[in-house]
């Protein structure tokens, strides 16, 4: 066979006499191969394509007729290659039609594996991975000129080898497309095969779903995610990549109108991206499109470790039981299991003794996941770093009392403006901080599970569109959300699990960009912090975030005033709510109420007084907020004529890059000099005294 990739492990498959009499030369099975070989093969084919391109241009000039001829050969030969029905084979076995492509003198054809592709300029890096041209075209529009590491390691075995994949890579490394591209490519292949079978009248009756596949009614793939926002994001991501494929993708999540979702499902999408709860609900209600769920060809579980935890696993388990019922269908399904923390293992609890205290190895953890999901012999691609977080993430901490947390948070938001995500451990904490930061005019955007879905999406959109916005969120925003340009992630409370820390922090420093994370630790949280360091194998403390103490005084004043005002307003709100409820109940019962019979709480006079004080405090706070908080050149020492401190030459506060601050601190402290690793940032001093962050490529 010509054009065969060097050293790939192809094994002949016995095809029997019947098929030989049909004129089939042979089948070969790709058993195992080395990704590097694929890369080499791809670059070899790249050179070849370039050479052939030149040749063709020359030929085109000289003999246009000849070129036309070769085009027609491509078409007929391609069809000839598909005359044999590969769907009759087990999923791991394929017919290689590269011989057919290889004979063709075509400059526009890549002969990698079993697809004939045209070259999209500037996208050569993708061609070696066997990605169909329609997808490459869309990737080119997205300016994704080359695959990320996880994509280049997952896409070939998934497309060529049809392998199940267990993928682990750092946050923001492009995992969505690592499973999205093979799924879209596989559906394209199946659809193409189906219509060609029909065209050629090949065994169309043998496969009961063929006509359905052709008419576009088949549900091919299911992608599961733990949160609604992530499902919507994944759907949009896949839609962008499937732009030229005609593949339809819909989302099924809770919180959106059931009617709308049913309407979407009536369009019979090829791929459904869903959260397990709503999906299971619709399956049980007997939605006709979702009734095909037992026969899906692709299943992707994003953030798998989260999906196997309480709260999601129950529905996932029911779904898996259903789709794994038929062994034949189960074995013809390709599974993708992904997460940044798939292989993260924990320290066993201290109270356990002896063998029970043995730490699970990543391999044992994976084995557990494999058997829970009922997958057999997947390819494991684990490229997570030892420290768990992204290589370009700068981590730091601030140790303070519980009381001071609000002050440091406000300080950070004022001193280091930029798109900032603040994580809290509870909804009540998000609510309290939202109130407080609203009073301090920081325009916070809350996001938690008790909000209306529409408001959740609206706040996310606002956060995306404003480069100086603050999102206050629970862990509902910790996983998967891809918001470009998040500069800082602040952990207002120490997350209770290392997974949570990794995923929260992973909202910044995505795709090799720099980002900063700051952990606020109060004395009651030290034990969580040390456990976090142990699990993530950190033998040193995270560096301290440098805070300018001289600026904290002004911060304290504002925050204290805002807190007082918040309490007063809360008292007023409660008083009104209680009274309104009582008055309404009395009115409904047609009773007349005496003043003394009002519910216990504030008297009318006290309520008026609270309101008066609140309005006074609000004025004071607004007056403070109207002045810049960090005046330049202000020493805080000089008295003025009026005896009050004034800031005569105040300019707008100079925003400081928080990441640079941390690096400066680390430079000073010899302790952290060893932190520098390949790929980490170094601080470069450039002309005019300005500092720049630069990624360190080599050691
Ligand atoms: N090949 C590529 N070239 C450039 N950008 C890419 C490429 N692939 C994906 N991206 C972009 O990288 C960003 C991160 O991708 P994605 O959300 O898939 O990461 P992830 O690994 O799933 O992150 P997380 O673990 O947080 O879920 C997205 O904005 C995506 O559009």
Automatic annotation (TrEMBL):
Keyword presence, ATP-binding: yes
Q: What is its EC number?
A: 3.6.4.13
Q: Which UniProt keywords apply?
A: ATP-binding, Helicase, Hydrolase, Nucleotide-binding, RNA-binding
The record's region (Disordered) falls at 44-97
Provide an example Pfam family for this protein: DEAD
Boundaries of each Helicase C-terminal domain copy? Answer: 404-552
Write down the superkingdom of origin. Eukaryota
Q: Does the keyword Hydrolase apply?
A: yes
* GO MF term set: ATP binding; hydrolase activity; RNA binding; RNA helicase activity
Q: Which reaction does it catalyse?
A: ATP + H2O = ADP + phosphate + H(+)
Q: Where is the Helicase ATP-binding domain?
A: 156-360
Skewed-composition ranges (Basic residues):
49-63
- Classification via InterPro entries: DEAD/DEAH_box_helicase_dom, Helicase_ATP-bd, Helicase_C-like, P-loop_NTPase, RNA_helicase_DEAD_Q_motif
Q: What does this protein do?
A: RNA helicase.
Membership in a protein family = Belongs to the DEAD box helicase family.
Task: State the name under which the record lists this protein.
Answer: ATP-dependent RNA helicase
């Amino acid at each position: 066979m010509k054009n065969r990739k060097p050293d790939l492990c192809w094994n002949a498959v016995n095809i029997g006499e019947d098929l030989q009499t049909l004129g089939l030369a042979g089948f070969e099975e790709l058993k195992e191969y080395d990704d590097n070989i694929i890369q080499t093969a791809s670059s070899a084919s790249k050179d070849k394509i370039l050479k052939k391109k030149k040749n063709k241009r020359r030929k085109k000039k000289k003999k246009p007729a000849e070129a036309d001829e070769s085009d027609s050969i491509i078409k007929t030969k391609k069809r000839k290659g598909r005359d044999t029905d590969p769907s009759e084979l087990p999923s791991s076995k394929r017919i290689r039609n590269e011989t057919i492509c290889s004979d063709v003198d075509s400059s526009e054809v890549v002969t990698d594996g079993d697809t004939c592709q045209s070259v999209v300029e500037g996208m050569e890096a993708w061609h070696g991975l066997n990605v169909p041209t329609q997808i490459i075209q869309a990737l080119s529009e997205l300016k994704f000129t080359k695959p990320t590491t996880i994509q280049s390691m997952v896409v070939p075995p998934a497309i060529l080898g049809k392998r199940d994949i267990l993928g682990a890579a750092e946050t923001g490394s492009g995992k969505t497309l690592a499973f999205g591209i093979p799924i879209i490519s596989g559906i394209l292949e199946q659809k193409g095969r189906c219509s060609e079978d029909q065209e050629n009248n090949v065994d169309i009756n043998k496969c009961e779903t063929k006509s359905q596949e052709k008419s576009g009614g088949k549900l091919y793939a299911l992608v599961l995610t733990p949160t609604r926002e992530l499902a919507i994001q994944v759907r949009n991501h896949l839609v962008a990549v499937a732009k030229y494929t005609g593949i339809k993708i819909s989302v099924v999540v809770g919180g959106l109108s059931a009617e709308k979702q049913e309407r979407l499902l009536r369009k019979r999408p090829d791929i459904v991206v869903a959260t397990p709860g709503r999906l299971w609900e619709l399956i049980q209600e007997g939605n006709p499109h979702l009734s095909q769920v037992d026969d899906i060809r692709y299943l992707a579980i994003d953030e798998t470790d989260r999906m196997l935890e309480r709260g999601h696993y129950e529905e996932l388990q029911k779904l898996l039981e259903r789709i794994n019922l038929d062994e034949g269908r189960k074995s013809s399904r390709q599974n993708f299991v992904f997460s940044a923390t798939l292989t993260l293992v924990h320290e066993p609890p201290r109270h356990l003794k002896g063998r029970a205290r043995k730490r699970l190895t990543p391999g044992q953890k994976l084995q557990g996941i494999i058997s829970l999901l009922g997958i057999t012999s997947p390819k494991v691609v684990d490229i997570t770093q030892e420290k768990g977080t992204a290589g370009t993430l700068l981590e730091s901490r601030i140790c303070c009392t519980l009381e001071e947390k609000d002050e440091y948070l406000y300080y950070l938001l004022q001193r280091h403006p930029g798109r900032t995500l603040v994580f809290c451990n509870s909804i009540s904490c998000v609510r309290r901080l939202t109130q407080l930061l609203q009073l301090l005019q920081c325009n916070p955007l809350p996001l938690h599970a008790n909000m209306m879905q529409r408001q959740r999406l609206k706040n996310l959109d606002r956060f995306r569109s404003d480069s100086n916005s603050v999102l206050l969120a629970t862990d509902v925003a910790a996983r998967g959300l891809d918001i470009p340009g998040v500069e800082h992630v602040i952990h207002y409370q120490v997350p209770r699990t290392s997974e949570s820390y990794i995923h929260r922090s992973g909202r910044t420093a995505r795709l090799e960009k720099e980002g900063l994370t700051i952990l606020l630790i109060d004395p009651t949280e030290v034990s969580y912090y040390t456990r976090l360091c142990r699990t993530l194998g950190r033998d040193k403390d995270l560096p301290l975030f440098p805070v300018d103490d001289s600026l904290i005084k002004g911060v304290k004043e504002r925050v204290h005033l805002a807190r007082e005002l918040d309490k007063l307003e809360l008292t007023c709100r409660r008083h009104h709510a209680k009274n309104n409820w009582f008055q309404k109940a009395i009115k409904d019962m047609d009773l007349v109420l005496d003043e003394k019979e009002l519910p216990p709480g504030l008297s009318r006079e006290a309520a008026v007084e609270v309101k008066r004080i609140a309005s006074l405090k609000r004025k004071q706070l607004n007056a403070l907020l109207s002045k810049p908080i960090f005046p330049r050149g202000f020493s805080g020492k000089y008295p003025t004529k009026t005896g009050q401190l004034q800031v005569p030459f105040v300019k707008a506060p100079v925003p400081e890059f928080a990441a640079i601050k941390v690096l400066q601190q680390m430079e000073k402290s010899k302790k952290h000099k060893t932190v520098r690793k390949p790929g980490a940032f170094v601080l470069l001093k450039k002309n005019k005294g300005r500092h720049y962050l630069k990624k360190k490529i080599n050691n």
